[in-house]
Amino acid sequence: MSIRERAAGFGLNEDEFDLVERHLGREPNALEAGVFGALWSEHCGYKNSRPLLRRLPTEGPQVLQGPGENAGVVDVGDGWAVAFKMESHNHPSAVEPVQGAATGVGGILRDIFAMGARPVAVLDSLRFGEPTEARNRFLLHGVVEGISLYGNAIGVPTVGGEIAFHPCYQENPLVNVMALGLLRHDELKRGTVGEVGNSLIYVGSKTGRDGLGGAVFASADLSEASDADRPAVQVGDPFMEKLLLEACLEAYARGLVAGVQDMGAAGLSSSVAEMAHRAELGVDLYLDRVPRREEGMSALEVMLSESQERMLLTATPGREEDLLALLEHWELDAHVIGVVKPHGRLRLYEGQHLVGDLPVAALNEPPTYIREGVEDEEVVRLRSTPVDVPETADPAGALLRLLESPTVASKEAVYRRYDHQVMTNTVVLPGQADAAVLRIKGSPLGVAATVDCNARYVRLEPRLGAAHAVAEAARNLSCVGATPLGVTDNLNFGNPYLPEVYYQLEEAIEGLRDACLALGTPVTGGNVSLYNQYRDGTGYRAIHPTPTVGMVGVLPDATRRATMGLKRDGDRILLIGEAAGELGASEMLYRLHGLELGAPPALDLEREAAVQRLVRGLVQEGVCDTAHDISEGGLAVALAEMAMAGGRGLDASLPSEPGVRDDALLFGEAPARVLLAVPGESAAERAEALCRAAGVPCLRLGVSGGDALRLRTARGAFAVPLASLLAAYHRPLSEALG
Amino acid sequence: MTIAVVRFPGSNCDDDARHAFEFVLGAPVRYVWHRDTALGRVDAVVLPGGFSYGDYLRGGALAALSPVMEAVRRFAERGGPVLGICNGWQILTEARLLPGQLARNPSLHFKCQDVHLRVERDDLLFTRHYRKGQVLRVPIAHNEGRFYADAETLTRIEDGGRVAFRYVDAGGLETVEANANGSAHAIAGVVNERGNVLGMMPHPERAVEALLGSTDGAPLLRGVLDHLAGSRPSA
Q1: B112 is catalytic
Q2: A425 to chain B: which residues are within 8 Å by CB?
Q3: Looking at chain B, which residue has its C-alpha nearest residue A561?
């Protein structure tokens, strides 16, 4: 078969193959076609999403590094900066959950220390089918095991995250991992080859056939045949990565490194091509110097291997020997495999033979496609369907059923398996608040982080739903007292060639843009994961569009922070924002009535910003140490969570409003709402005064105390003992994880 | 006065131990690399937590064979204080500096949570700032923390009064539930016969600052420093 006939096997369509020929001025050989195919794959080249991603706001005074590097970096003050990024490992985790998730953690941590930062925290956003099914429990078990074995062993705490369950993720779970690293401004590193004459140093694990073609694998639909792709999943070695991490950080500190990049998707091909491209230079690469763990690997296999725990460094000119000695001290395998040239080409040699000659710029500039999106008629119909369900006669029972929703339920059974305290920076632990908080040693500052997405909202109205994800993430940060600084997004969607999916993607990006602009949180990087759908005999099953938002913020003083648990008896419980929520697209409608319809709640971004400013102001001022965002399950669930987290009850009356159903009051959802608990009358008055000044409603709901959740509406009152709440809340995940 | 923190490849609580001793308690720390054959002039040795050599074989099994362990053994034989935390305790048992073994948790899963410990001895250099029977709240984070020893060894440990800490509930009582990893006799920490080598699964170095939730581990580290300074136990 000719190379042209084999183009599809390299991941290139006919037009793309023509383009490769035009760039080369000749037909590519198999090696060249394979490298082009991998770098122009969706996973590496973002060919369907790049034009849309350009619409996202990426600038702000706090941004030290925006998209285009291994991770984004924001200034947090006092000369400190945070590098952060989120990335998906969905397809590998569907096939081999333990290693899929483990290598997801390993990969994102390498991105962080490639920026010169010491990784300080991991958060995960996970999606599975319902845990009542064995396959989903198998995936959940495996993914949790993988995150745990990698994160715990390398010694970076897993401090937070979210897990949601829905049948649409049955065959295609989502595993999005976010990592944060800490650095001083002057420690920022970049992925560049530096200058002509520099050596390229390969360090870490040897190259094998594992993960071969992973970038192409990640860019295709999953099908029953995917199990045969098992070798496309890599195996993680956190021990090796710990050595790499320490060696790299020490090498940076000693000024030995000019540029650094990890070998992620498409392995050596992408790391060399990207580093050369950023410097606008070329590289001569000697493939026979690449250390291998298998015999008889072809040049293409070496170029595309996704073996884990490998980094590419360029030494500071004149310090190459020192760098190699340091890597040896850390018992790492390091080899000079290339040299930087002015020719702007990626030239591949085997011995003396030139076996591939590729233009660096073209490798990094894949063709991009702008498609025509069309909204799915079925979604239009669902969105405009009025919510018409009988009002519940048993609000206490409804509350317990919502707490038992695995999406709402406690994730304690999961995070107990993660070391969340190693590095001794974790000020707010998992389960305590809406966001994790880390201190910065030797500084009063705190760093907060969260991940969020309500995919049901996004499915029913992509633009609004994606804006909600940003708003809720920022609200989460504000509830611990942090000022939001920046976003990393992980766009999990189906096949972009389907007009309905492309529509979701385009609209969701518009929604992210709306909210990021309004809330002052530029996007500094992220990841696009397409083809998240499963093909079986009956056709496609698409996931809900899931644009996961990871956000970081800063606390001026880590000792002034809020958590959700009620801390004292007699605290005043205040509701900031409107009392009633919407039933459309709510968790209540889904869990109690099996319906996913209606429009998501409206989002007034100005009101949202005002509420968030107010809440973090009260926390930073020291007026309030107890705050909780109201999300899935509404006011009643949020109040129950505050009671459970604090181990004490509360007594609250919800105001009646004409035409508002009790279940909308109790379980309805709406943005721009936060619950506070403040000690004493003067604190409550201070909060009320600030709300009046900001034009935001503030209602006194009641007081903390007792051993039950007591709620009163105009129609009556009910009480649920704390012990019953806790039993319901903890059951789903402790059962699922055994 | 200098505290040596031994770094094995894969140690990951080395910096936490350094931070606790150096920045919280003000005692200089020196890192010692696992291939070093001498400790140099140091006054106490800490084997920190982590996953030495990835713990791919068995927690601490390979680290126990590191060159530095011979120096640690000599240091311990001379009476120098040695504190092994988590993986550090596993290494000390593998090196036979302490009795027994640390086996997989009964759940077969990693477990990270606060536990309550009852102080069983207050006359050790490590525990001189605690009262016997005092209940501490300190975090654990491990996969292989279930203390195990054969009946004869257990008798020897108990008869010799070598249990430093036991897992208990908040009220100080031994219960099945409070014994978070199913350890024999709820043992959370053990000393050698001479009392200068302590191994424990809970992490005192994670409990030295109020900002992080508990300061109950600080008196243990301060006990080592005060012992070295030759001061009398405070009342």
Answers
A1: no
A2: 212
A3: B211
Pick from A130, A138, A133, A152: nearest CA to A93: A138
pLDDT block averages, 10 residues each, chain B of length 235:
96 97 97 95 97 89 94 97 98 98 94 98 97 98 97 98 98 97 98 98 98 97 95 45
Distance CA A345, CA A362 (A): 10
Q: Judge residue A379's burial from the number of C-beta atoms within 10 Å of its C-beta, 0-12 exposed, 13-18 middle, 19 or more buried.
A: middle
Q: Which residues of B touch A326 (CB under 8 A)?
A: none
End-to-end CA, chain B: 23
Read off the pTM.
0.95
Residue A536 buriedness (CB in 10 A; 0-12 / 13-18 / 19+): exposed
Considering the domain architecture, whether residues A353 and A490 belong to the same structural domain is answered as no
- What tens digit of pLDDT does each residue of A649-666 get? 999 999 887 888 999 999
Interface touch B212/A154, C-beta < 8 Å: no
What is the average per-residue pLDDT within A697-713? 97
Measured distance CA(A336)–CA(A284) in Å, rounded? 11
Q: Are A219 and A530 in contact (CB under 8 A)?
A: yes
Domains in chain B: ranges and CATH: 3-229 (3.40.50.880)
Domain span holding position A337: 14-45+189-364
The distance in angstroms from the start CA to the end CA of chain A is 53
Is A129 among the domain residues?
Answer: no
Could you tell me if A326 and A449 lie in one domain?
Answer: no
Among B86, B120, B142, B227, the one annotated catalytic: B86
B147 interface with A at CB cutoff 8 Å: no
- Is B209 one of the catalytic residues? no
Count of domains forming chain A: 2
Say whether B104 sits in a helix, a strand or coil.
coil
For A135-146, how does the pLDDT look when each residue is reduced to its tens digit (9 = 90+)?
999 999 999 999
Biggest alpha carbon–alpha carbon distance for chain B: 45
Report d(CA A596, CA B185) in Å as an integer: 53
Let me know: does A428 contact A561? Beta carbons within 8 Å.
yes
pLDDT at residue B233, as a whole number:
44
**Sheet of strand A626-629, all strands in order from the earlier edge strand to the far edge:** A626-629, A674-678, A572-576, A698-704, A650-653, A708-713, A716-721
User: What tens digit of pLDDT does each residue of A234-266 get?
Assistant: 778 999 999 999 999 999 999 999 999 999 888
Which own/partner pairs from A360-364 qualify as long-range (CB within 8 Å, at least 24 positions apart)? A360/A273, A360/A276, A360/A277, A360/A281, A360/A282, A360/A283, A361/A277, A362/A20, A362/A23, A362/A36, A363/A35, A363/A36, A363/A39, A363/A269, A363/A273, A363/A277, A364/A39, A364/A273, A364/A274, A364/A277
